[in-house]
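Late entry, evening session. Most of the bench is empty. Finally got around to the prediction I had been postponing all week. Sequence below, unchanged from the version circulated by S.P.
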Amino acid sequence: MKIFFDTEFTGLHKNTSLISIGLVDENGRRFYAELTDYDKSQLDDWLKLNIIDNLILNNMENNSISFADHMDIKYVKGTKKYIAQELYFWHQYIYNPDVQIEMWSDCLSYDWVLFNDLFGHAFNIPKNIYYIPFDICTLFKIKGIDPDINREEFSGLQGHKHNSLHDAKVIKACYEKLMLI
C-alpha cells in the first residue's frame, strides 16, 4: 500500500514546526490534521498568506477535534501529541498490520522528518510502515522530467496549493501519471 503525504510547516530551517499534515492512500482514503501547538512566532507574511489562510479547520473553535465527513476521510485538529494518537488510530483502523506501507512525498526532506517527529522518532512509527520513504522528485528525474515542473499542471488537479491535503492528492496524481510514462 502506498500513502502519499505532505506537510506544511513554519520554514525551511532545523527548528521548523509542523502546521498541518495530509495523507491519501492509493485507494483514496484520507487523513488531514492541523496542529494547534506549532510555533506561531515563526510565521512570516508568506506563511500567513499561503499556509495559514489555506487551512481547512483553522477557524474551528475547539482545539481538540476528530471527525469524519465520510468513511474515507478523517479530519483532526489538536496538539502534536493528539494528532499523533489520532494518526496512529486511523492507521490501525484502516490497514492490516501485515500490509507493508510505502510513504511517498514530494520533496520529502522535511516531510519525512516531521512525520517521524509526530511519533517521537523513527523507531515509533507503526511497524508496517517501511522505514525508507520515497519521493516524486526523484521519480520525475528518473522519468526524464524536470523535477521543478508545476505539479498542479502536470497532475491536472487544481485547488488550494500549500494545503497539505490538496498537495497530498496532487502527489498521488503525479505518481499515478508518472507510472504510466
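Two things to note before I forget:
The mean pLDDT is 92.
The beta strands are 2-9, 18-25, 30-35, 65-67, 73-78, 102-105, 134-135.
Will write this up properly tomorrow.
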